[in-house]
Amino acid sequence: EAGVAQSPRYKIIEKRQSVAFWCNPISGHATLYWYQQILGQGPKLLIQFQNNGVVDDSQLPKDRFSAERLKGVDSTLKIQPAKLEDSAVYLCASASRQGMNTEAFFGQGTRLTVV
Amino acid sequence: KQEVTQIPAALSVPEGENLVLNCSFTDSAIYNLQWFRQDPGKGLTSLLLIQSSQREQTSGRLNASLDKSSGRSTLYIAASQPGDSATYLCAVRNDKLIFGTGTRLQVFP
Question: What is the pLDDT of residues B1-18, one digit of tens each?
């Protein structure tokens, strides 16, 4: 079974530029999460999808962050414009069903550096 | 709002010691609790998953327990090795998957 795929692995951009991250979850997984992990901290949930619908985006800075999950499979997370404090690792995870006793699987993450 | 706390934040021990990492959560209405390992610059590797109806799970030298009513979980690492050095994260799942702050473990030879 293939794992969660994320790209790119690393990205360096200047502040005020735009950036997009891509995530391909495990086949058949309906639930998809995006997390932001700042150095030295635990991952913070940004947005959660169930199929192609948003379940929770209460901690997503909507003035600059957006995310979509077309057709309930792949997902993209975009930042526009980026700020220095957006430097972090962005993690994508998937699980087979929301609110069930199932395991969540994580991708390798995208490390973003904003200079 | 679910809050997850891990103690200690950092731990440095000599090789061979048995360790206990702690995780506490404020809302006991969870479906499961997962322990992860994270190596520097890497993603998260799932170590153990405990369902809400279970009391513990074991994998090799790792044993995780869950006391849902008191909002606590512990990860026990037996006979620690330098290769166990990493950050250990717990996460609780209800409708969301919420992480703790992590314990950074260093095992020295």
Answer: 899 999 999 999 999 999
